[in-house]
Specification:
heterodimer, A: alpha/beta, abc type-2 transporter like fold, 5-stranded mixed sheet, 17 helices, 5 strands, elongated, B: alpha/beta, Rossmann fold, 2 domains, 6-stranded parallel sheet, 4-stranded antiparallel sheet, 8 helices, 10 strands, 36% helix, binds adenosine-5'-diphosphate, binds magnesium ion, ATP-binding (chain B), P-loop_NTPase (chain B), AAA+_ATPase (chain B), nucleotide-binding (chain B), ATP hydrolysis activity (chain B)
């Protein structure tokens, strides 16, 4: 093993710059991406008006929860002001926590808990409503209050000269068929928004990190392609150890190198974004590392030129990231076609699984590769 | 003593090596000639254990090619037809890289001396910037790191200048005559074959090489 390390270091010394670039890419790119995205997101929060007419602890808590939602910019105001701003499209929608909110929740009454006002220009009403409904639901402690908000929706018709009574009179019930859309606002690994990390939680930091980690792994594994050039392979086949053993030992060295960087990345990300972390997350990272190193290795074995390897690796890793839900939510897709969740090693990682079907299948293929006799004596 | 018996190798329906038998003893320099595609590289690759033996038998002293290929590899130095070195490494780094993975430990000094013996003195130079002749020398030097008994060279002097060719030729000749190495090598340069080889094997049906070499007083056996 020491000999392999010496030979690998000879290669690394030649590739210092690119090696460091790829090793540092995941952490730097994730931090930059998430920071920029949060900045942008804060500029594009949905403005809503919040009118709190109930003076109770529960109403306070609800208004706090809405306030903490990273996608929503809340302005507290009185009813008249709110409706004027809604008319002027300064607000996307207006929500009123009605007088008697706490009492009605506690009595399991469905009347006048939260009322929503919308205009024709309320683009983001549905997701905001879903989010608020989920908070109310949490307050209600069960699904008793499932459709509270839905039932209370008032259509605010900007074309008309309105009066309060007219608004109420022309109110429409909007019933949404879908269940409360938790996922509109969070990817996997959802972290409850808190005061400190407001604006961060909606980005799946680990999804973005995993995407860059996958890219890095593919690009660093070009060593397999280089060492399989026919002429070099002949030499490496005639050495003290069989060629496959040579590749396997190098693979282990890369596993350690990348594994160490993973743990460093993990601690930095956890601190930088105030994420909580625990031992099972570390196990999930180790399992993910093992998985993608096998993916990259078995994939690279198929290539004879680095050029074709690079241009094939790029779409493959992006496809896996997308289908695995690392970049955009894919819950809807998975609900419809369950098998989609098996298409990418990102899914189990983002769910925090340690043992996944990917890991097991790859371990089997990897072992078959290693133990199978080759036609040549290599 | 290397003993080859009724060796046959087909690629699909194409017969490349047909029922070949010969014996080579220690310290001999044997040339292998034939037109392109005759099967010279295939034969050398089989002797180097890179292509598995299918029909026939090969023995080196008491080692058998079917059973002991790992032990055989320790005894064989194979110089591939295509230059097989790390282009972005220096001469030194190439030598150290392959020494680490080789059967024997060699000091830097010994490795350097090996290169110097071949008149390859650009120790720190990047392989990329070496001349064709120097690259060929490095290609041979790497295969000699583990002091093999048998040296199989596939066109070791192709495409290089006369001076380097002479240097490589006389180095190989010394290895056989003073160090007792057995050398089998292919070449298209008949002058070189005539001046270096004790015996010549001709592979393929074309009588051109046989006639040319025999006119110059070489004993040629057709395989
Ligand atoms: N891996 C292979 N598969 C099929 N045919 C091959 C393979 N390697 C060599 N050949 C064929 O075998 C013949 C002998 O090739 P080779 O031994 O390289 O000849 P030489 O070295 O004398 O030029 C050629 O016709 C070549 O096309
Ligand atoms: Mg050839």
């Amino acid at each position: 093993m020491k000999a392999i390390l010496v030979t690998r270091l000879l290669h690394w010394r030649k590739q210092m710059v690119s090696l460091l670039f790829w090793l540092l890419l995941p952490i730097i790119a994730t931090c930059m991406f998430v920071t920029t995205a949060n900045q942008w997101q804060q500029d594009t929060q949905i403005p809503i008006g919040l009118v709190v007419e109930d003076n109770t602890a529960m109403a306070d808590k609800l208004s706090q929860s809405i306030n903490d939602n990273p996608l929503i910019h809340v302005e507290k105001m009185n009813m008249d002001r709110a409706l004027i701003e809604l008319e002027q499209h300064e607000l996307d929608s207006v929500f009123v926590i009605e007088d008697g909110y706490q009492e009605n929740i506690q009595n399991n009454s469905r009347n006048q808990i939260v009322t929503a006002y919308v205009s024709d220009m309320s683009l983001a009403f549905t997701p905001v409503k879903e989010a608020i409904a989920s908070y109310v639901q949490r307050d209600a402690g069960s699904s008793r209050a499932a459709h509270i908000v839905d039932q209370m929706v008032q259509r605010y018709d900007v074309e008309k000269n309105w009066t309060w009574d007219e608004v109420v009179a022309t109110s429409n019930q909007i019933r949404e068929e879908e269940a409360l859309l938790h996922t509109s606002f969070s990817f996997y690994n959802q972290v409850e928004p808190t005061q400190e990390n407001k604006g961060v939680s909606i980005w799946n930091i680990w999804g973005i990190w995993a995407t860059f980690a996958m890219l890095t792994t593919f690009f660093l594994f070009d060593w397999v392609v280089k060492e399989q050039q026919p002429s070099i392979k002949i030499r490496l086949s005639l050495l003290r150890m069989p060629f496959k053993s040579y590749l396997l030992r190098n693979w282990i060295i890369y596993l350690f190198l990348l594994g160490i960087f993973d743990l460093i990345n993990f601690s930095i990300l956890a601190m930088y974004f105030n994420q909580s972390f625990n031992f099972s997350q570390i196990l999930a990272i180790v399992s993910f590392r093992l998985t993608i190193n096998m993916v990259a290795f078995l994939f690279s074995l198929r290539f004879r030129t680095t050029f074709f390897y690079y241009i094939s690796a790029l779409p493959v890793s992006i496809f896996m990231a997308i289908i695995g839900g690392a970049l955009i939510p894919v819950d809807g897709l998975i609900q419809r076609w369950a098998w989609v969740s098996h298409l990418s090693p990102f899914q189990p990682f983002l769910k925090g699984q340690v043992v996944s079907s990917w890991l097991i299948v790859l371990l089997v293929i990897f072992s078959i590769w290693y133990w199978r006799k080759e036609r040549a004596y290599a | 003593m290397l003993k080859v018996d009724s060796l046959t190798k087909n690629y699909g329906s194409k017969q490349v090596v047909v029922d070949v038998s010969f014996e080579i003893s220690q310290g001999e320099v044997v040339g292998l000639v034939g037109e392109n595609g005759a099967g010279k590289s295939t034969l050398l690759n089989i002797l180097a254990t890179l292509i598995p033996l299918e029909e026939g038998s090969i023995n080196y002293n008491d080692l058998n090619y079917g059973a002991d290929h790992r032990k055989l590899r320790e005894k064989i130095g194979f110089v591939p037809q295509d230059i097989a070195v790390w282009e972005d490494f220096s001469v030194k780094e190439n030598m150290v890289f392959f020494e680490q993975l080789s059967w024997v430990k060699k000091s830097r000094k010994e490795l350097r001396q090996l290169c110097l013996d071949m008149k390859l003195d650009q120790w720190k130079e990047k392989t990329k910037s070496l001349s064709g002749g120097m690259k060929r020398k490095l290609n041979i030097a790497i295969s000699l790191i583990h002091d093999p008994d048998i040296l199989l060279l596939d066109e070791p002097t192709s495409g290089i200048d006369l001076k380097s060719r002479k240097e490589i030729g006389s180095y190989l000749y010394d290895l056989a005559k003073h160090n007792g190495k057995t050398i089998i090598y292919t070449s298209h340069d008949m002058e070189e074959i005539i001046s270096l080889c004790d015996r010549v094997y001709c592979i393929g049906k074309d009588p051109f090489y046989k006639e040319l070499l025999e006119k110059n007083g070489k004993s040629v056996q057709v395989l």
